[in-house]
Amino acid sequence: MAQLNVNIDHVATIRQARKADEPDPVWAAAECELGGASGITMHLREDCRHIQPRDVELVRQVAKVKLNLEMAMTEAMVRFALKVKPDQVTLVPEKRQELTTEGGLDCRKLQKHLAAVVRRLNRADIEVSAFITPDEDQVKASAQAGCQAVELHTGSYANAPSQAQLTRRLGELEKARDIGWACGLIIHAGHGLTYRNIGPVAALEGLEDFNIGHSIIVRSVFVGIRQATREMIELIDKYSSYCQQ
Ligand code: PXP
């Protein structure tokens, strides 16, 4: 059954809107855990515009579930990860002006650098996942660089303007998953997933983790984080059980 990691960045976004000390993402992490999340995802951006280093350090100390740290492949971030030791690092490209991570990491172009970063993180027992577009070359390049996992970018699926496009995007995810499996990779997925569009992706066999943020935090405003987490897990479980029949 696929697992849910809740991305709590937007709790920090609200806090940073006032540069205040609340809401605290550490509380949010505890609420996600109480709601049944298997993991917490946090993106420490280079400009620290939402999550702060202190947030990651404290969640590392208090969370009993998997900590997945999203970060760019910079020296400062690698050093931070080696200090904090999350269970998993997801390597993402990062542009300062973007509202959210826009594209996947170009693992083919950056393969040498990626391989060196993976080696350093693996030596500290940190698993590495690369956030990539569901594309054959990118999947293979991630495996060749030594990544344990890839997170398939579901943004194009989430934004598909028609049913035909959506079916095509699902097919791309499925194909990328198969190539990843053939390369020995663990397959995660995320970006743009919501309560309304999770079904068909959750029904794809064998996806390990979903990293979902915006939609869950939005629902939390009305029902609370614990309940919002629970509701997403119920949907993932319901649809993943289809592929097991
Ligand atoms: N996965 C990655 C690599 C991301 O960068 C993000 C956004 O921070 C997510 C998943 C979560 O995306 P969303 O907030 O759209 O659920």
Structure description:
There is one protein chain. The protein is α/β, with parallel strands linked by helices. It has one domain (70-244): Aldolase class I (TIM Barrel). It contains 11 helices and 8 strands. Helix 6 (136-144) runs parallel beside helix 8 (163-182). The chain starts with a strand and ends with a helix. Bound molecules: pyridoxine-5'-phosphate (PXP). Pyridoxine-5'-phosphate binds at residues 7, 9, 43, 70, 90, 92, 100-101, 131, 151, 190-193, 211-215. Residues 7, 9, 43, 70, 90, 92, 100-101, 131, 151, 190-193, 211-215 line the site of pyridoxine-5'-phosphate.
- Count of discrete alpha- or pi-helical segments spanning 4 or more residues: 11
Number of domains: 1
Query: Main β-sheet: number of strands, strand sense, barrel status?
Result: 8 strands, parallel, barrel
Strand content: 15-25%
Fraction in helix: 40-55%
Low-confidence spans:
none
Radius of gyration: 17 Å
Report how far apart the termini are: 12 Å
Number of strands: 8
Q: Provide the CATH architecture.
A: Alpha-Beta Barrel
For this structure, the CATH topology is: TIM Barrel
Which ligands, by name, code or SMILES, are bound?
A: pyridoxine-5'-phosphate
- Helix-and-strand structural type: alpha/beta
Average per-residue pLDDT, rounded, comes to 96
**CATH C-level class:** Alpha Beta
Strand order of the largest sheet: 1-2-3-4-5-6-7-8
CATH-defined superfamily: Aldolase class I
The sequence of SSEs as H and E is EHHEHEHEHEHEHHEHEHH
Shape: globular
